[in-house]
Amino acid sequence: MAPTRKNKASEENHMSVEEAFSQIEEKIQALEAEDISLEDSFKEYQEGMKLLKYCHEAIAGVEQKIQKIAEDGSLEDFE
Which residues, in sequence order, are CB contacts of 30 under 8 Å at separation 6+? Predict the structure, then answer.
């Protein structure tokens, strides 16, 4: 059975940025295939964009934590 949207979102929240980048690379390779259908290319593109958004948000969160540490020297998590 294919995962539902909720399950995919949950999977994205538990993957590392490295895993997401690896999946993005797989999407790029699929899009570069000569025999990919238009429908499949849209699907791969959409999934790739979701992964890119996840990576961007994860990296932004880390940057915020680093900035908080740099500002006051504490080791508290940025919330």
Answer: 36, 40, 44
pTM over 0.85: no
End-to-end CA distance of the chain: 36
Which pLDDT tens digit goes with each residue over 56-70? 999 998 888 887 776
Output the 3-class SS for 7-27. HHHHHHHHCCHHHHHHHHHHH
